C-alpha cells in the first residue's frame, strides 16, 4: 500500500520537476533571444532607425531577473528528480569493487548506502527548513526583482521532504532485502 503512494509521489515530483525545468529552459531561451535582438537593434545599421526604436520601445531585450528565477527553480528541479531516481535505483555507481562481492554483501552494501542517503536527505531537509524560517524572518529578497528568497527555499524544501520520504522507504526496503534476501525494489544501478 505505502509503496504505491511512494511511487505516485516519486512520479508526481518527477513530473513537476520536468515542468519547472522546461519552464526554465523556455525562460532562458527567450531571455537569450531578447538579449541578442536587443543588441542587433542597437548596432549599425539598425541603430536609431524607426523600426529599431519601435521594437526597443516595446521592451525587447533580456527578461529582467531571468538568472534569479532560474536559480530559484533549479534547486526545486534537482530535489524533484531525486525521489524517482532513488526509488528506481538510478544513481550512478562504480561496480569495480561491488561486482566481486556476493549477493548478500551487495544487498548489505545497498542497505547501508540507502540508510546513509536517507539520513543525509533528512539533514538537508532540516537545514532547508531552518533556512526557510530565517529567510522569512529577515525578509530577504533577490537583488533585481525583489523575489522573496524564502519562496525558493520553500520550493526546495518541498522537494527535499518528498526525497527524504522516498529515501526512508527505500532504506527500509533495502534493510528488509538485506535481512531476508527478498527483492522488493529494483537492484541498485538498474534504473528499471
Features:
192 residues, mainly alpha
Tell me about this structure.
It is a multi-pass membrane protein. This is TRAP transporter small permease protein. Part of the tripartite ATP-independent periplasmic (TRAP) transport system. It is a single chain. The protein is mainly α. It is 74% helix and 0% strand. It has one domain. It is built from six helices and no strands.
Low-pLDDT parts are none
What are the secondary-structure elements, in order, as H or E? HHHHHH
- What gap, in angstroms, lies between the N and C termini? 20 Å
Tally of domains: 1
Report the strand count: 0
Tell me the strand percentage band: under 5%
Mean pLDDT: 92
How much helix, percentage-wise, in residues?
over 70%
| Main beta sheet | none
Based on secondary structure, the structural category is mainly alpha
Work out the radius of gyration. 23 Å
Helices, by number, come to: 6
List strands and helices in order, with pairings:
Elements: H1 2-41, H2 50-57, H3 66-87, H4 95-98, H5 103-138, H6 149-180
Helix pairs in contact: 1-3, 1-6, 3-6, 5-6
Brief rundown of the structure:
It contains 6 helices and no strands. It is mainly alpha-helical and 192 residues long.
Amino acid at each position: 500500500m505505502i509503496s504505491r503512494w511512494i511511487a505516485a509521489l516519486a512520479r508526481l515530483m518527477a513530473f513537476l520537476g520536468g515542468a519547472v525545468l522546461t519552464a526554465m529552459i523556455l525562460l532562458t531561451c527567450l531571455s537569450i533571444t531578447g538579449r541578442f535582438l536587443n543588441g542587433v537593434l542597437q548596432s549599425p545599421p539598425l541603430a536609431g532607425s524607426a523600426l529599431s526604436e519601435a521594437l526597443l520601445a516595446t521592451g525587447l531585450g533580456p527578461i529582467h531577473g531571468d538568472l534569479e528565477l532560474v536559480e530559484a527553480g533549479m534547486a526545486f528541479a534537482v530535489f524533484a528528480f531525486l525521489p524517482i531516481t532513488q526509488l528506481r535505483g538510478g544513481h550512478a555507481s562504480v561496480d569495480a569493487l561491488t561486482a566481486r562481492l556476493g549477493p548478500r554483501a551487495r544487498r548489505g552494501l545497498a542497505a547501508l548506502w540507502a540508510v546513509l542517503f536517507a539520513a543525509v536527505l533528512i539533514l538537508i531537509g532540516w537545514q532547508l527548513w531552518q533556512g526557510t524560517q530565517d529567510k522569512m524572518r529577515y525578509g530577504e529578497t533577490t537583488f533585481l526583482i525583489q523575489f522573496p528568497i524564502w519562496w525558493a527555499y520553500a520550493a526546495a524544501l518541498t522537494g527535499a521532504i518528498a526525497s527524504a520520504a522516498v529515501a526512508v522507504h527505500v532504506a527500509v526496503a533495502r534493510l528488509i532485502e538485506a535481512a531476508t534476501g527478498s527483492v522488493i525494489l529494483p537492484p541498485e544501478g538498474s534504473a528499471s
